[in-house]
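The authors assume throughout that readers already know how a fold can be written as discrete tokens. What matters is that the chain and its backbone geometry are given together, residue for residue. A single example would do more here than another paragraph of explanation. For illustration, here is how one protein appears when written out as sequence plus structure tokens.
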Amino acid sequence: MKSTKPHVALLASPGMGHLIPVLELGKRLVVQHEFHVTIFVVATDTTTVESHLRNLPNPKLLNVVSLPPVNISGLVDPDASIVTKIIVMMRETLPALRSAIISTTRQLRPTALVVDLFGSEAMAIADEFEMLKYVFIASNAWFLSATAYFPTIDKRLEEEHINHKKPLMIPGCKPVRFEDTLEAFLDPKDQVYVEYLRLGVEIPTADGILINTWEDLEPTTLAAMRDTTSLGRVTKVPVYPIGPLVRPVMQVRPVPVQEDSVLGWLEKQPSESVMYVSFGSGGTLSSNQMIELAWGLELSQQRFVWVVRPPMDDDASGAFFKVDSNGYDGTPNYLPDGFLTRNSDKGLVIPMWAPQAEILSHPSIGGFLTHCGWNSTMESVMNGVPMIAWPLYAEQKMNATMLTEELGLAVRSKEFSTTTIVEREEIERMVRKIMVDKEGDGIRSRVKELKYSADKALSIVGSSYNSLSKVAKDCETSLQGQLSKARGA
């Protein structure tokens, strides 16, 4: 018997930052619309993703299929950017994805395929099997505007932006200054430049674009995308702001004993008194910068929880495929001598990974020093926690500018460049600004106002709820068309 509910297939590219919002999107399609959902996950050499999937609160809610790992060592330079590696990995996974979709078709044919940014080439498979196809942008609409618009500009504008460091003027949107621009745009001779421009061209060939944002967060950018006389002439297809997609704490896997010590320590701290410091699942600092950060935290005299991983001097995204702590002895010998002892009464250092969702939701957390990955940003907003913006790679510099200059939810170092060392006195100043100074109170109030806005968007008949419902309606209409066609055959 044919199902009367659509089956949606989602494709997540490698990395926890890509997987988590895809999982949350899948859950919403199941819970809010009673869809059947299959999530295809591109496996890597880390066990963290598998561990996360094993510990989903209701594993029967979603059908998760891990695609076999692929070897790209002969296809990309070892020093290639993380974006290049992910794109090539996704390309090499296409045959396995096609086979997996054929297997699921035998039971329940997918009505739609939703791919994230780096999986856009998989939309050809959706065409082959006459499925609706959507691109899911796990970041914000401003990032999407730059990604979609850059391939359309002429050489003169490109040269002005890259060579003369003038802002990238995007129709109807906030300009992207050179200091914040995406690294993929910088070198036309680099493989990542060619690959990324292709992504920008392919996005508008989808049936729609889902974005991890909401109407009240980026009204101007979203309006420009819907205006065919403005950016809409580039994006072309409907945009659906469906965010924020954030893990509810009660849905996070049970916390093991070794991690429970973090929450136990937080229980003993006063309300909003702890600065949480983490650079995401893949971010790293240089040796010198890590020492300065340690001293800055100590000089601030504020309580802190710091997730540390070994420094890497040449690649801020060097830990992207190495987020688990297996084989790590937990001794951070790269911190200043005596740091752990001197700060044992007010600081907690955690090697490699921590239960971020639980930490940010704890009442004792008063600030978040973050790399500005969009998942972390949204988790901070949804918990009403003000931020110190410390971008490292990808679109994080754009995110940091949005947080500090447009939304007023964070403070940021005066140093824009990720190659410049932020000194301990500057770090102390930023920590105290959030945790002690009056300016921090104003930022905290704005974050909590935005949390209310996000909660409203996600509520029944809220803007994001309605936006996802439109996508669901299109999937249901497509399914009915498939069933009618089958009956008439």
Notes: The chain has a mean pLDDT of 91. The two ends are 16 Å apart (CA to CA).
